[in-house]
Amino acid sequence: MTFFCWTLSGTAQHTLSIDATLDPIKKTISIKQRITYLNTSKDTLNEIFLFDWGNSFSSKTTPLAKRFAENYDSSFHFEKDKDRGRTDIEKIFSESQTPLQWQRGEQVDILRIIPNSPVLPGSSYTFNLEYTVKIPDDKFTRFGVSKDNDYKLRYWYISPAVYDGEWHVYSNKNIDDLYLTPSEFSIAFHYPSIYTLTSDLDLVSENFINGNKNIKTTTLFGKDRMSADIFIEKNPTFETVETDKINVVSNLQTRRVNPLLQAVITDRVVHFLNSKLGPYPFDKILLSEADYKNNPVYGLNQLPRFISPFPDGFERDIEELKTISRQYINNTLILDPRKDYWLQDALQIYLMMEYVNTYYPKMKIIGNLSDWWVIRWSHVADVEFNDQYSILYQNMARQNIHQSLTMEKDSLLKFNKNIANGYYGGSGLRYLNEFLGDDVVDRSIKEFYSENKLKPVKSSEFEKVVSKNTTLPVNWFFEDFVDTRSTIDFKIKKVEKLGDSLKVFIRNKRNTQLPVSLYGLNKKQVVFKTWTEPIDSITSITIPSKDIRKLALNYEGEIPEYDRKNNFKNLKGLLNKPIQFRLFRDMEDPNYTQVFFMPIFQYNLYDGISAGVRLNNRTLLPTPLSYSVSPQYAARSNSIVGSASIRYTQDMDEDNLYAMRYGFAGSYNSYDKGLFYRRFSPYITFLFRNPDLRNNKRQYLNLRTVNVHRDDDPTDTKQEPNYDVFNIQYIYSNSNLINFFQASGDYQISSKFSKVSVDLEYRRLFLNNRQLNLRFYAGMFLFNDTRDDEDYFSFALDRAVDYMFDYNYYGRSESSGLFSQQLIIAEGGFKSQLQPAFANSWITTINANTNIWRWIYAYGDVGLVHNHNEGVSAVFDSGIRLSLVADYFELYFPVYSNLGFEPGLPHYDERIRFIVTLSPKTLMGLFTRKWY
User: What is the pTM of this model?
Assistant: First the structure.
């Protein structure tokens, strides 16, 4: 076995010499490695830190494992140990064979080495490592060993951390932010000859060891390289496209593109990046399907392969552009990928926008689907492909979960990390370019790239380059756009007529200082455009009034603005914008006041299927003020039912109190056969959260009044059909995959009663994969003037009465039959139907369950129920829970309770309880929690 070693030779970079042997049976790589660490700082180093990200897969408690859990990804937690990765270090020693002190500490994927002599400024230190890396399954990060026993290797070797006055040591959190500086690599990789090795490093040689045809050795070399990704496959999937700039080695899956067109696309992308950035410093660039899937073109990647709404080659073009540009930038611009990554992301998206403007200037966001007669009437058919970037950012901003571009990468929500922040940054560069004009941004990008390629650099250097190339102010972009969390929102406050001119007063509604574009319109034709100076509150600008009938801010959407609906001012007439009626929900069109009609269908036992239409203003993006009116015809009750609501959300940018929500809701439906209820409820909700948006702690305080009017039931002469309840609810929640906790307090007062209750719920997923779910509920009447034989307002043991009509019961008044078996975990939370079923004094219960195997659980409930004139009753039940989709689709089979062995009792099928959630909005929470 040959061990390759290149000395420093005066080059200002680290040298990594690696001799690696792959064992496909054990799925391990045995490595002998020499590192020559160059101290480029002004400090003397008494310790050296190394990244050992291969060991981040070693347990369920590493930072990587915790990140998976935070993202509700349970696959890693439940994986077998043999499919996880790890690093087993055999020894670390100096050039003189002296063992070196080393330790891992709490960060198991960071090594701390103590040199046997201090490393002086400008000097180098060489040491050796011998270790074995167990390769993890590729299902966790798409890198690792595949089910076909192919190897996609990233972060597979130990590498030196960056020191520039401080150590930048970050644990692996699956956010692709390993911070390295360019190094010199020499690698001898030994592997079975049935495999083929692919890398973007230079191929030095490839031969068999001592004539052994079963083992192949590939020798690689690279200088000024950021990393050494290697792919080892039994059936090679990579192909090379040669251009006159670089060779592109790729295994991106082809979407119905012939080889000739594919070559043309690759050549065009390479030349575009060369013209916009500058020459790529290496001979070849490596593109992998794993890289693309980790950072895809969102939208395109969601479509099935057989659907292609875009012209031939477009999808391949954009996919290849995104993957090549990512590699192009990351391999050459050395920015701190955790703390100063925003410029890399912004540059990539900006280049993609420029590419589409150049080669696909009229491309729509839904491609050829915009020509379909069923779609072309909608506004989404008019939305340009490049508009998606500001739209997807607005999705987060409208929910008040956007984050600043300079927020550290590991503090970003998944949606912001993968999509919104990069899109906002790219849109911001377009905003800056439109304001500065004269292609200042394009020239500055090229100059910045040329001056800083393959050198550690900070994004602040880019600001200096832009400032040098213009006389206009640019500090607003870096201080108020990039470095703040505030959104952008402008408004035309008023307009004054001054002879043949217009004095326009413009208000910046946010606490920022930003410029805005002002347009003069004649119908839909732009007759005038100008830019203001950066505005921090209110400014005025005087423009000629000739031919102008309407004024608009940001008319062409070059600014990623929070709300463009308030950007118009008609010089004549009452309405600033015409009203537009649309069938089905649509994209937001700021040029109109939109009203949508949406067919709806609902079901309950008494109304049957209710069909109708929902009239509302809710676009595909959340809006601060929303209303909905939903009249429906109920087939079974032969009546008009429905609901109406209006809500306004006031967002707060910085405080723990992040939103206040004011609203009113009303509904009219059946509550029994031939009986209807009318419910009216005004409310105000205060929403609190941790400033760290990745922290799942939330608090809600809700104040409401519920007014209910019911039809008189002729069979119940003592019924009190009408009542008002004032309700205060407090909820604290901290929802995570490993630890879940929620606590709520509830106070209600009405003319007939007053009651208070607490509800505590805890879930714990242990390291041995055992899950324990506990719930405690206690409720007590402060006073209760209802009749002792009337349990309508009482606490329920197994089926809450729901007199405030909060729960989605399909047959709320049923006491027998299938619909009476519907279970909603509320109040007592019991599954068996026991006596006493209600408590008119106080109740306390504990519900518990734990898994037996996968989605099969054993449950048990115990409680005490107190009723006036009856005393205290102790109750219990137990059984089997089938949690097919937790909290959304579950079955409960009682086994033993106060009634005895329930499967032996008559009509056991009527004792089975079920949870079924049909609400699309509720089910959507299963998916959005992984992103938000």
Answer: 0.91
